[in-house]
Design brief:
An eight-stranded mixed beta sheet has the order 3-6-2-1-9-11-12-10, sandwiched between helices. By secondary structure, the protein is of the alpha/beta class. Helix content is about 35%, strand content about 25%. The longest helix has 25 residues. The chain folds into two domains: about 240 residues, Acetylglutamate kinase-like (Carbamate kinase, 3-Layer(aba) Sandwich); about 150 residues, VC0802-like (2-Layer Sandwich), CATH 3.30.2130. The protein is globular, with a radius of gyration of 24 Å. It binds aspartic acid (ASP) and magnesium ion (MG). The site of magnesium ion (MG) has 4 residues, from loops. Magnesium ion (MG) binds next to loops.
């Protein structure tokens, strides 16, 4: 019998009525012979509500041990309610908190990492025909203290459980019906992907496609857990995320999706010395400020100086500009310039590995759409360009069309 770990997000368990609908859905799957472990999130809005309560008690820095005790209650509510709903349908089911299972984590309250999951009780229940309901987002450390995994962490709970139980699939039920070739709000002809690889999903996810927590995708890739994203209440197969087995139809698709992010800013340090240590002198202190730098370009120097350009999240723009202005003399830079009205568009696909000329196909499509390109960067499975933010939608649609993403794959 196939074993599935099924995770339900906050909106899916947002009311008692919805919890009852999920219970019915689980009953159907159980009747069809599936072995099931369910991982619900807290009801939508609940974790935020609890965080706000904590802030009232401790303005400024909240005690993280106590915050975890508080936040873990959100999922404790939904596991109990869902189990009750299953029992009301005549099924045998049992709920467990992270501590009860136990989901052993390290000691980092509010961003704990899972170290081990005891599977004995879960397997015993499954063997006895029960549906097992495990609280997402929480664990327990070796001192017996409750920990939580960071916001959105129940995706990771589900994947970790699926890995520990060697489940056939980890199914993430959510309010979208899968992963799309691009954001359907920008391109209405965006198509749901039947399959995508872990690597592609990571690129899509880190570029703003927020269907899955990035950590959960990394975890699934590391432990080779097949992951499926699908809609809670709409029928459908969703999107399966797996390794590229070289046999599926996605091999033929050069580009699997177009990812983008709106909130980019670009900063240019002009006329710094072309000598060892320059990049470190500029970027070292920025990374010490905990600011993430994304694309980095240094052009070939014609004299003894060079220009150094990079992108950061728009929220960090002012901070980095101020910082560099203040250190301009120290760095020996002629000037610092920047633009915080830029966006990034990327084409993503494992098919690029074995095909030359994808980048030029991309540039051609953008040229025909009259989109001007700023920085360009490439990796094995991705080409990214920085564009004026006003050209983002136009660029995404042009690329979606050029790479024929709206059509059904052969
Ligand atoms: N309830 C937690 C949160 O809102 C965990 C989750 O939903 O995945 O972050
Ligand atoms: Mg969530």
């Amino acid at each position: 019998m196939a074993l599935y770990v099924k995770k339900f997000g906050g909106t899916s368990v947002g009311s008692t009525e919805r919890i009852q609908r999920i219970a019915q859905k689980l009953k159907d799957a159980h009747d069809a012979g599936e072995k099931i472990v369910v991982v619900p999130s807290a009801m939508s809005g609940e974790t935020n509500r609890l965080v706000a309560l904590a802030r009232e008690m401790m303005p400024g820095v909240v005690d993280l041990r106590e915050l975890d005790v508080l936040l873990s209650t959100g999922e404790q509510v939904t596991i109990a309610l869902l189990t009750m709903a299953l029992k009301a349908l005549g099924l045998d089911a049992r709920s467990y908190t992270g501590t009860q299972v136990k989901v052993l984590t390290d000691h980092s309250h509010s961003k704990a990492r899972i170290q081990h999951i005891d599977t004995d009780k879960i397997f015993k229940d499954l063997d006895e025909g029960r549906i097992v309901v495990v609280a997402g987002f929480q664990g327990v450390n070796s001192d017996g203290d409750i920990t939580t995994l960071g916001r959105g962490g129940s995706d990771t709970s589900a994947v970790a459980l699926a890995a520990a139980l060697k489940a056939d699939e980890c199914q993430i039920f959510t309010d979208v019906d899968g992963v799309y070739t691009t954001d359907p709000r920008v391109e209405s002809r965006a198509r749901r992907l039947e399959r995508i690889t872990f690597e592609e999903m990571l690129e899509m996810a880190s570029l703003g496609s927020k269907v899955l927590q990035i950590r959960a995708v990394e975890f699934a890739g590391k432990y080779n857990v097949p992951l499926r994203v699908l809609s809670t209440f709409e029928p459908g197969e969703g999107t399966l995320i797996t390794y590229d087995d070289g046999e599926s139809s996605m091999e033929q698709a050069l580009v699997s999706g177009i990812a983008f992010s709106r909130d980019e800013a670009q900063i240019k340090v002009n006329g710094v010395m072309d000598k060892p240590g320059t990049a470190y002198a500029i970027l070292g202190p920025i990374s010490d400020l905990n600011i993430e730098v994304d694309m980095i370009v240094q052009n070939q120097a014609e004299d003894e100086t060079t220009d150094f350009t990079f992108t950061v999240h728009r929220d960090d723009y002012e901070k980095v500009m101020d910082f560099l202005e203040n250190r301009k003399n120290e760095l020996g830079a002629k000037s610092i310039s920047g633009n915080n009205r830029v966006a990034k568009i990327s084409i993503v696909g494992v098919g690029m590995r074995s095909h030359a000329g994808i980048a030029s196909q991309m540039f051609k499509a953008l040229a025909e759409a009259n989109v001007n390109l700023g920085l360009i960067s490439t990796s094995e499975i991705k080409v990214s360009v920085v564009v004026d933010e006003n050209y983002l939608e136009l660029g995404v649609r042009a690329l979606h069309e050029a790479f024929e993403l709206e059509s059904t794959p052969v």
